[in-house]
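Hmm, what's this shape?
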Amino acid sequence: MELTRFVSIARGDEAADLLLRNGRVINVFTGEVVGGDVVIAEDTIVGVAATGTLSTGRPVSFEAREEIDLGGRYVCPGLIDAHVHVESSMVTPPYFARAVLPRGTTTVISDPHEIANVCGADGVRYMLESARNLGLTLYVMLPSCVPATDLATAGAELTAGDLVELADFPRVIGLAEFMNVPGLVLGDPGAVEKIEAFRNCVIDGHAPGVGGLWLQAYVGAGPGSDHECTTADEMIEKLRLGMRVFIREATGARNLRDLVPAVTAENSRRCCFCTDDRHPADLLDEGHLDHLVRLAVAEGLDPVMAIRMATLNAAEWFRLRDRGGIAPGKRADMIVFSDLLDFRAEMVFAGGRLVGRDGELVGDWDEDDPGSQSVRRTIDVAWEELSLAIPAPDVGGDVTTRVIGVVPDQIATEHLVEIMSVSHGEMIADTERDILKLAVIERHGRTGNVGLGFVRGLGLERGALAGSVGHDAHNLIVAGCDDRSMMTAARRVTELQGGLVAAAGGRVLAEVPLPIAGLMADRPMDQVRRQMDELVGAAHDLGSELHDPLMTLGFLALEVIPELRLTDQGLVDVERFEIVPLFVVGAQEGEV
């Protein structure tokens, strides 16, 4: 707001726009809860004072055109998600905003890495453009690794020069999760060039399981945060090296309960919360960042400390000096709630405007989706040339095969070695041992590659699941019990020009169309959620007992997370960071 008006209201010479009376303010700067009033003009907090007096004891009286008596309810800053891929919500930024704003999330730090791997710079520009004029503030950390590695075929590439050109766009604030740990630590010129180009900006890290000298080299090179910790020991090692740790509770990776016990009064200021990737059902049923605050408090974390981790800590790391706390000059992003032990937003203000009440959106919202034509029709597969057959090697006996092992509620996998079945000279699924055939089909029209392998732990007893969401290159990924079901599901994804599908034999059982980059729907989240419920229900009917089998499937191609993955180029041993053969000559079952 204009400065002269601000100071006029702040000194009491002019009426404010809104006065929140009789609240209990969560002061994240001091860790106190202070009874008082909050004064707002336009989108800015103008004054905060203990009820009836200033800290000096002198009486204070603000006037405003509108007053709301909070009746002793708490007021805290709007929540800030330190790292999120909006694309994983399966809806566009405007629809995402409508889902999370009423729950108290007023700022997100978005990494449009997913759409960038499909559409390149056009995808980043689309996310920025579609997120304009929302009650939710969406900042962008530029995707640092598109493609993530050279072990998969993405739809685009972003060089250091491309990223520098995007850096001047409004709401671009830094470089997102730098996943190419080997490239940076070993001095790959392309990796180093990107880090050097953003040396004076915030650089987020991505170093799952990395420790020791490699971690020290990585941190010293520039990345200063990490959201991939899965154990308390990993978290403490990274905190001791000066990193910020984003405690994650996603749909496919639920790490909060394992990490919160390691948070102390001394290290909590280095910790934030993030959701990373959450599907519609979890967002609508559990919540967004509010769910993480509730969960952390239920695990024993001090409520004010938890709120600080969800607000001020993130604001300070990302250099967002206008938000994160309730104080004069800060943006008027605030939440009103009644129970510190059961954090649920009753009123949400974004930029001084009431946008949510009791979990429901307030006001009229524009439904326009500008520029979406540039990120549609992104699937190009030459089906007439494609086969899912895996010829068995002529080894004169049992065939020992590498198999990806699913870890429930985590995105890390196991590197298994199993003796596999052969039928008519081909390798086939073994549903009795929960081993399915897996294929990753290059869908960007660049190479026509098909990576073939096996996965254990999806739980299907018949049929197949397929999707155009296959982190991070987002090729078409399909797992199933037989080739016919797999082809039915995969071809339907192409007909939809993006989506998730369950099929059995020649019949499609359920589907979720995702026409925007093959990642997002062009409809509200509650509609997508209903389709997802039908799809997950179909997957469960096919035998899977996983919470969200489609989310698990989508991460099986992510070649930067240990231990074994499948890309369109083949099986990736993430520990060795190289393509490895499907068949293991001379190995016994269980050996790598």
Q: What stands out?
A: The CA atoms of residues 104 and 488 lie 41 Å apart. The radius of gyration is 25 Å. Residues 525-541 form the longest helix (17 residues).
